[in-house]
Write a structure and sequence with these properties.
The chain has 213 residues and is mainly alpha-helical. The protein has one domain: Up-down Bundle (Rhomboid-like fold). It is built from eleven helices and two strands; from the N terminus they run H-H-H-H-H-H-H-H-E-E-H-H-H. The termini are far apart.
Length: 213
């Protein structure tokens, strides 16, 4: 069984359990003051395994399934025997790093909560885009396929705008920093554990596509 499917199964089991158990929900959710004053650092990770509702859970796990399966195979191709371990390291570490800016902003805010795997899923999606920038993707509200690297730029721009505007319960900051962390992780891992030149290959693919016009 793939690492992606294992993550999805565990996340679904924990999330569904938390839907009907307030203690599980409260114990796992990202609550910055609990980190600040009680040193409950595990919340950076545990909050990625619970979700607000079934729609939130299905959306994240469907995206993880689509992009995670492909990325996991690419990691095995690029990093060989280290592929699965590095893929797991990307996912787990992105749960932590995507929330660091959120924690910095809300570390003493007793009214703030955050949950969901969106930051880690964003890391997976953007790492996949970095390896395959010419894949066709589209936004739900724009039913026109666009190339992955263009989608990535628009996604970051829209998320940045929505984050600055505020007024919603969505943690756009986690999406942004998760996406950027996914890119950084893959570039560093490529240099450290493989001869595959991640940035060079990305640029080559984009330039080859642009020369068609």
């Amino acid at each position: 069984m793939s690492i992606t499917l294992i993550i999805i199964i565990i996340t679904c089991l924990v999330s569904i359990s938390a839907f009907s158990n307030e203690k599980i929900y409260n114990d796992l959710i990202f609550y910055p003051p609990a980190v600040t004053y009680q040193r409950q650092w595990y919340r950076f990770f545990s909050c990625g395994f619970i979700h607000a509702d079934f729609l939130h859970l299905i959306f994240n796990m469907y995206a993880l399934y689509l992009f995670g399966q492909a990325l996991e195979q690419d990691f095995m191709r690029i990093f060989h025997e280290k592929g699965k371990l590095l893929y797991l390291a990307l996912y787990i570490s992105s749960l932590f790093f995507c929330l660091l800016p959120t924690y910095s902003k809300h570390k003493n805010d007793s009214s703030y909560r955050s949950l969901g795997a969106s930051g880690a899923v964003s890391a997976v999606i953007f790492a996949d885009i970095l390896l395959d920038p010419l894949m066709n993707l589209q936004f739900f509200f724009i039913p026109i396929p666009i190339k992955g690297f263009i989608f990535g730029i628009l996604y970051l721009a829209i998320s940045s705008y929505l984050d600055k505007r505020g007024g919603s319960n969505i943690n756009h900051s986690a999406h942004i920093w998760g996406a950027l962390y996914g890119l950084a992780f893959l570039v560093v891992a490529g240099y450290a554990f493989s001869d595959y030149l991640v940035l060079h290959e990305f640029i080559e693919q984009v330039q080859a596509w642009s020369r068609r016009f």
